[in-house]
Amino acid sequence: MSAPSSILVGNIGRTVWVKVDGRGTFQNSPGVKEFVKQMIQRGRRDFVVDLAGCELMDSTFMGTLAGVALRLREIGQGGLRTVNVNDRNASLLENLGLDQLFSVEAGPSASAPETLQQAVADNEEDAKGTVLEAHEALIEADAHNAVKFKDVVEYLRQELTREDRADD
């Protein structure tokens, strides 16, 4: 059994660092998404995701990264880089075509912050919406992903529509 996952953050100048320790999953994706949204609202445009301690990533977490990169592309400034990516995670990112959307680097970055702080806790409140957005971002990032995630997207859309009707 693996240790609990944590997301640590820090800044060097105007670059935002996000370090994944453990697993990048649907459980910590809503928190990452919200943190990045806040940083973008504050004018930050350069993001580095350090995967040195990341055991593995699920499709929702990778879709969340894709969503960040797509948002930065839409803004027309900045970008996303992943560093310290092991072979397994590099293969996952490449299989979804995400290496065409953002940089996937095996090596470390010389300018990592000396201290990082726990900033993003697991947040399952908006899990279905985050999972849907993440998978839609994967499809937008690479059309080949539509076949892989069509059923997930369709199911989540139906679930969210059903929940919206129940709330009315």
Q: Tell me the fraction of residues in β-strands, as a range.
A: 15-25%
Biggest β-sheet, characterized? 6 strands, mixed
Mean pLDDT over all positions: 89
Summed up, the helix count is 5
Which fold name fills CATH's third level, the topology? Transcription Regulator spoIIAA
Structural class: alpha/beta
- Indicate the percent of residues in helices: 40-55%
Radius of gyration: 16 Å
Give an account of the 3D structure.
The chain has a single domain, classed as Transcription Regulator spoIIAA, CATH 3.30.750.24. Helix 2 links the parallel strand 3 and strand 4 (79-83). It has helices at residues 29-41, 59-75, 87-95, 127-141, 145-167, and strands at 6-12, 15-24, 46-57, 79-83, 103-104, 117-120. It is globular, with a radius of gyration of 16 Å. The chain has 5 helices and 6 strands; from the N terminus they run E-E-H-E-H-E-H-E-E-H-H. Helix 1 packs parallel to helix 2 and helix 2 packs across helix 4 (127-141). The protein has a 6-stranded mixed beta sheet with strand order 5-4-3-2-1-6. The model has no long low-confidence stretch (mean pLDDT 89). It is an alpha/beta fold and 168 residues long. Helices cover 46% and strands 24% of the residues.
